[in-house]
Amino acid sequence: MSSSFFFLQGKAPKEIHAILKETLGEHAPSYATVKNWVAQFKRGDFSTCDGPRPGRPKTMTTSEIIDKIHEVILENCWISAKSIAEQLGISPERVGSFIHEDLDMRKLSAKWVPKYRNVDQKRQRCQSSEQILDFFSAPYKLFPIAIGDNGRNLVISL
Predict the structure, then answer these.
(1) C-alpha–C-alpha distance, residues 130 and 152, integer Å
(2) CA distance linking residue 12 with residue 14, whole number of Å
(3) What's the CA angle centered on 29, arms 24 and 32, to 5 degrees?
(4) For strand 153-157 and strand 105-108, is the pairing parallel, antiparallel, or unpaired?
(5) Could you tell me which residues come within 8 angstroms of residue 150 by beta carbon, excluding any fewer than 6 positions away?
(6) How far from 2 is each of 6, 26, 35, 60, 157, CA to CA, in Å?
(7) What are the start-end ranges of the H helices in the chain?
(8) How many Å apart are CA 42 and CA 20, to the nearest integer?
(9) Contact yes or no for 38/7 (Cβ under 8 A)
(10) Domain residue spans in the chain?
(11) Phi, psi dihedrals of residue 7, rounded to the nearest 5°
(12) How are beta strands 111-114 and 105-108 bridged, if at all?
C-alpha cells in the first residue's frame, strides 16, 4: 500500500511513518520524506517519484569529464585547474575535486603528478630493481667496456 492510500484515509504523517516503518523496517523512508509526501498530497500531487528539476541539464557524464581532464593534463602537465575549468566549461572546484580525488594527482613544483604509484608502476619498478640486483650480484661478471670507436662503429671490449 502506498502513502497516498493512508493519506486518503485521513492518517497523520506520524501514523503513516509508523506504519511504513513497521512494514518496511530499516528500508522505510524517513519521517521528513513522509511529511513532504503528505504536503504534496494536500496540493493534489499524488506522485512519490522525483519529477524533472529546474536548471541546466548535465552535458557530460562524470567519466567523460575525468577523461577529458586527464587528457588535458597529459598534454600540458603545467596547466592550472582554473585553465582546465575554463577550457571544459566547469567550475574550478569541480576540476580540483576530479584531479585530487579521481585522478589521484597533486601539484608538485607547478606540475601535475600522480600522488602514488599505481599497481602497474609498482610492479614494473620491482621487476626492474630485481633485474639490476641480479645483474650486479653475479660473481665474476665481466662488464663490457667501450674503448673507442672504429670510424662509424663503437668498439666494445670484454
Answers:
(1) 35
(2) 5
(3) 145
(4) unpaired
(5) none
(6) 7, 17, 14, 36, 88
(7) 3-8, 13-24, 31-42, 62-75, 81-88, 92-97, 119-137
(8) 19
(9) yes
(10) 3-42, 62-114, 119-157
(11) -60, -45
(12) antiparallel
Contact (CB, 8 A) for 98 and 63: no
pLDDT in tens, the chain (158 residues): 566 677 767 888 898 888 888 888 888 888 998 888 888 888 888 776 777 777 766 656 688 898 899 899 989 988 999 999 999 999 999 999 888 888 888 887 777 777 776 666 777 788 888 888 887 777 665 655 555 555 555 555 44
3-state secondary structure of 148: strand
CB contact at 8 A, 44 and 81 = no
Give the cell for residue 62. Answer: 562524470
Residue 144: strand, helix, or coil? coil
Q: How far is CA 32 from the centre of its chain?
A: 31
The answer to whether the predicted template modeling score (pTM) of the entire model surpasses 0.90 is no
CA distance 56 to 90: 12
Fold of 62-114: Arc Repressor Mutant, subunit A (1.10.10)
CA–CA distance, 41 with 19 (Å, rounded to integer): 17
Length of the chain, please? 158
For residues 136 and 25, give the distance between their C-alpha atoms in angstroms, rounded to a whole number: 67
